[in-house]
Amino acid sequence: MTIAAVRTHRLSAPLHTPFVTALRRTTTTDTLVVEVVDGDGRSGFGEAPQVWQVTGASLAGAEACVREMLGPRLVGRDADDLVARCAEVSRAVAGNEAAKAAVDTALHDLAARRLGVPLVRLLGGTALRVPTDVTLAAGDATDLAAAARQRRAEGFSVLKLKVGTDAAGDLERVRAVRAAVGPQVRIRLDANQGWTPREAVRVIRGIEDAGLDVELVEQPVPRWDLDGLAWVSDRVGLPILADESVFGVRDLVEVIRRRAADMVNVKLAKCGGLHPARTLLDLAAAHGVGTIVGSMMESQIGLGAAASLVAAYGTTAVSDLDAAWWLAWSPVRGGIRYDGATVVLPDAPGLGITALAEVNMQPTS
Question: I want to staple 186 with a disulfide (CB 3.0 to 4.6 A). Which of 137, 158, 202, 326 is the partner?
Answer without folding.
Answer: 158
